[in-house]
What we know:
The protein is α+β, with helices and mostly antiparallel strands.
Amino acid sequence: xxxxxxxxxxxxxxxxxxxxxxxxxxxxxxxxxxxxxxxxxxxxxxxxxxxxxxxxxxxxxxxxxxxxxxxxxxxxxxxxxxxxxxxxxxxxxxxxxxxxxxxxxxxxxxxxxxxxxxxxxxxxxxxxxxxxxxxxxxxxxxxxxxxxxxxxxxxxxxxxxxxxxxxxxxxxxxxxxxxxxxxxxxxxxxxxxxxxxxxxxxxxxxxxxxxxxxxxxxxxxxxxxxxxxxxxxxxxxxxxxxxxxxxxxxxxxxxxxxxxxxxxxxxxxxxx
Length: 272
């Protein structure tokens, strides 16, 4: 199993302990896959491990299921021994367990919110119709090949823009100062449609010619951005059947962003 499966197993066992996982002295409960010194490993935990493996490209099989269960048993044995060795109450363990719990609760809040505010088939169809209508009379999709630089302050963005105006390549400046993970690719984002970006970016992107950089820094919720239009192309739009999965995912991301933005507005956030 990959390291991510080990982390998932640890998280699941931790959460099982939080929820007072059932112990069995005589026999396994109906929903149990195994018991390790009385600690139940539920079938739902095994299924989560299977789904994680499938997401990594592995194929479902009896061998995979046995491997996932074996890994959960190994993790259970190690975690129980760690408790015996007094590691469970260490500062390092408490920090990591708190981190696992926080991430689990964050995912649970998002999934609960989406279950209570689902994206319907009608929503997807309406969004597809809106996107098709926005293409104009020619009915063609315009895609933009974009690079960006993300920094924390307007001052840093202005300094980066000044370097570019003096002749430094956008790629070099991005590698030097950008805070985004794509800095290692010189800020390359790839091909996007204007509607797939936030309005602040779209408003600038659609005014640029090939090779141009945004004339001023763009303020975003998470910082300040410079963008460069590397290339531009047009193509026929996909059919509804071809597009519906991507549209649904986009609408889900939009709902998540709206929720997070609402929480930010009512939160007291202090950043060092």
